[in-house]
Amino acid sequence: MSTPASVLREAFERHSWATVKLLDHLETQDPELLAHGVPGTYGPILETLTHLVDADDRYLLRMDEPTIPPYEPKPPLAVAQLRDRVREHAQRWAEMLDRLDTGELHARIQGNESDDPGIDPAETLLLLQALHHGDDHRAQVCSTLGSLGLQVPDLDVWAYWDEGRG
Q1: Using DSSP, how many helices (H) and how many strands (E) does the chain show?
Q2: What are phi and psi of 114, to 5 degrees?
Q3: Which one of 57, 68, 79, 117 is separated from 19 by 20 to 30 angstroms, measured CA to CA?
Q4: Over the stretch 23-48, which tens digit does the pLDDT of each residue have?
């Protein structure tokens, strides 16, 4: 039987699965492909995926830190490095959800100015944003692949479920 906690856990497991599956697919492609981007997306494939993974780091950090340094884009990481970080994030998301289940998680986002009170509590916002952000950028990478006439991996929930995750 599903519970609210089990549904949320499954959503984060699928979040990690989809990114790893996309990275695995990209490893089978010409490495030069990773430098391609199309208008309307974040940018080149590898930069987009590095941004996605870096953002997850920041969402996880925000669960414990109300104020974090401003975002600074980083140079793209190799596919293998990104995969390792996504797998690490999967464990960290599970730990964060454990804390949520026990009532030990209380995230807040510090406001920047006197007219910006911040967000407290912020854990729901951060969890929803992480899931949305991941889907958004994975879709952009898949759009880039499709626009180049290349095969696009199936990352939807049905594919996740068919692989025995559910």
Answers
A1: 5, 0
A2: -65, -30
A3: 68
A4: 999 999 999 999 999 999 999 999 99
Where residue 118 falls (left for φ over 0; alpha for ψ -120 to 50; beta otherwise) is left
- Output the domain CATH number for residue 64: 1.20.120.450
Q: Is the pLDDT of residue 166 over 60?
A: no
Domain count across the chain: 1
Residues 52, 133 contacting (CB under 8 angstroms): yes
By C-alpha distance, which of 52, 29, 20 is closest to 148? 29
pLDDT by residue (tens digit) across 104-126?
Answer: 999 999 987 767 789 999 999 99
Structural tokens at position 92: 């960290």
CA distances from 20 to 47, 72, 164 (A): 16, 24, 16
